[in-house]
Design a protein that fits this description.
The protein is 25% helix and 15% strand. By secondary structure, the protein is an alpha+beta fold. The chain has one domain. It is elongated.
Length: 65
Amino acid sequence: TYAYSDSTAVVGPLATASEPHSYDLCEEHALRLTAPRGWEVVRHEGGFAAPQPSGDELTALAEAV
């Protein structure tokens, strides 16, 4: 997530809701993320767990099969 007013990039678990300044990254890219000069990067402590599929994702998968 980017907080432009605070010049801060926050790297943490995947968002549970859509946010206009949030982007989903794989673990490799989340660990390598850098921010513009003068910005602060705040990183989530601990590992990144794989998200659990939601009911919508499971329904879409079942309908696709």
